[in-house]
Amino acid sequence: MKKVLAASVSFCSFSMNHEPGVILKNAGVTVDVNQKGKAFTEAELLEIIDQYDGIIVGTDPMTPYVIKQGKKLKIIAKNGVGFDNINLEAATDQNVFVTITPGAVEQTVADTTFGLIFSLARNITRGEAAIRKGEWPRLIGINVSYKKLGVIGLGRIGKNVIMRSTGFNMKVYAYDPQPDKAFCEKYGVELVDMETLLQASDIVSIHAPLMDSTRHLINEHTLSLMQPGALLINTSRGGLVDEKALIKALREKNIAGAALDVFEKEPLEKDSPLLELENVILTPHLAGMSSDALIASGKMIAESITLAFAGQTPQHVVNKDLLIKMENM
Ligand code: NAD
Known about the structure:
37% of the residues lie in helices and 14% in strands. By secondary structure, it is an alpha/beta fold. The chain has a seven-stranded parallel β-sheet with strand order 8-7-6-9-10-11-12, with helices on both faces. The protein has a five-stranded parallel β-sheet with strand order 2-1-3-4-5.
């Protein structure tokens, strides 16, 4: 009997009780669910990982040590598409598949991104908070329609954000080191360098992956290029933004506002200065959380796990070197 640790909190709290849980049960897989309600630490994983043939992770740290300790592991199934918390090299060395769930969350994250753009531009969350305190402020925001939108990262989510922007007659600038030129032509997107994007956009939205080369892509210098009235939206990964520099820019009104779904440290620390700023909207990494997305990603995960346990290659493997290695075995 194969045993899986469901570390991903959203998989445990939602997907397990729906079709994905049924698929795993019917395949005879025992699933231990995360009872903590938050991600495991490296130390906690090191203690228990050797019991499991597979693990379903959210942001749990799959470091080389954890993977090495997981001697029985056949698959690390990421509930999502950002796999910066998983050491691919260690997984490949140990013949462990690392899979993601593309196609499940991009609509959800793009919807949330636009929700954040509107909330920030139109002072929706700020007005809501004020009215609950018995206040009736006259909050003057900006329009979203006809504004200039700068999209950093033209992948699955960035493209879906752009598709939505066409309904609001926005002028779109995009930066991506490997852009899909046909997509840009179709949607009238102007491909520019980062500097031009930051200088020209009223709203900048980040949709690039977290890698060594993208860490603190938004920093004191790049923030200084933005317009004083500009808004920054981050639904990608917290590490792409130097939070200290952003706090300074927001305090000094070098940019007008920010909406952040992701943070350098999650959960956000209770004494974070971000909590004191009025020109910021903060959400708890919920951009990809919808029942639609969780059922779709959960089904992909359950199918990947059953395939890996049956000795077959699952879909959406991201450690491609393992596939090459297997072909030569
Ligand atoms: P993707 O892999 O489809 O696209 C990422 C794009 O970024 C690619 O086109 C790539 O070429 C581009 N890129 C790489 N380096 C870049 C750089 N230096 N500057 C600009 N672009 C660069 O990824 P996706 O599925 O669109 O996901 C985008 C981001 O959203 C990831 O960081 C992912 O972790 C994050 N995400 C967040 C949530 C959430 O809940 N907040 C949910 C899902 C995904």
